[in-house]
């Protein structure tokens, strides 16, 4: 598929540090196609999280554009952005951010409840997605009763439960051992094949990034020559 899902042009972000202006992102241009798995690789402080925040409409750039399916997200109100995130995007972070007092099923169902679905419909859909990530048997367990890898599987299920077009993942395996991290990448690749969901994954791990369809490198806020996997 070649239709463009998300695109940014000349994206820059500056922070003021006393008298200093700190340029954290500098004229970044990225295009993500529907169904694509794209990695952005960079060392700590290269601007990866800042980039994801801007692409997910969680922060505004100092300059540049962000378009989702051809629409200018920077012109949207806070409510429009919130609806868009709920309906079209899924987020996965380094730390799972599951709600500790709710079990896996309830955590996965949460975005659907927020989106207005009934509890019964939400739990039915959540159970389907938990099955896809191989966690049906753990559905009624609290996050504290799950391993780190299982928690990330639940977090991925929660990101996918609304059938988003795109998942933005910020170091989704940064807190896991190598073997578990590989398993999470396998899972994301198989979900991409099965559901057609696009993924943009930022990571410092080149080996994991090389498993995806394409990878780009961010260095001190600039995209440098990218590698295709
Ligand atoms: N709100 C802020 N105010 C000032 N500087 C910031 C702010 N947020 C981020 N920065 C700076 O921007 C730079 C990029 O940060 P960012 O978190 O995007 O990097 P990263 O590549 O995700 O790093 P890591 O892998 O360590 O999370 C860093 O130098 C950071 O200190």
Automatic annotation (TrEMBL):
Function of the protein: Part of the ABC transporter complex LolCDE involved in the translocation of mature outer membrane-directed lipoproteins, from the inner membrane to the periplasmic chaperone, LolA. Responsible for the formation of the LolA-lipoprotein complex in an ATP-dependent manner.
Major subcellular site: membrane
Molecular function terms, GO-annotated: ATP binding; ATP hydrolysis activity; transmembrane transporter activity
Organism: Pseudidiomarina planktonica
Subunit-structure text: The complex is composed of two ATP-binding proteins (LolD) and two transmembrane proteins (LolC and LolE).
Protein name (Swiss-Prot/TrEMBL): Lipoprotein-releasing system ATP-binding protein LolD
A cellular component annotation (GO) from this entry: plasma membrane
A single GO BP: protein localization to outer membrane
Family: Belongs to the ABC transporter superfamily. Lipoprotein translocase (TC 3.A.1.125) family.
ABC transporter domain boundaries: 6-229
């Amino acid at each position: 598929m070649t239709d463009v899902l998300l695109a940014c042009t000349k994206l820059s972000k500056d922070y003021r540090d006393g008298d200093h202006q700190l340029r954290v992102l500098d004229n970044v241009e990225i295009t993500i196609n529907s169904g694509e798995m794209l990695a952005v690789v960079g060392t700590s402080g290269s601007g990866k999280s800042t980039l994801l925040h801007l692409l997910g409409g969680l922060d505004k750039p100092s300059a540049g554009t962000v378009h989702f399916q051809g629409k200018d997200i920077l012109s949207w109100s806070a409510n429009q952005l919130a609806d868009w995130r709920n309906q079209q995007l899924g987020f996965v972070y380094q730390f799972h951010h599951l709600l500790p007092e709710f079990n896996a099923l309830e955590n996965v169902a949460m975005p659907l409840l927020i989106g207005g679905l009934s509890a019964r419909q939400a739990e039915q859909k959540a159970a389907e997605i938990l099955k896809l990530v191989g966690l049906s048997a753990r559905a009624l367990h609290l996050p504290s009763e799950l391993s780190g890898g299982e928690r990330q599987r639940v977090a991925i299920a929660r990101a996918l439960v609304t059938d988003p077009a795109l998942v933005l993942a910020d170091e989704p395996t940064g807190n896991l051992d190598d073997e578990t991290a590989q398993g999470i990448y396998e899972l994301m690749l198989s979900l991409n094949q099965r559901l057609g969901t696009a993924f943009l994954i930022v990571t410092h791990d080149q080996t994991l990034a090389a498993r995806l369809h394409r990878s780009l490198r961010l260095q001190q806020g600039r995209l440098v020559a990218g590698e295709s996997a």
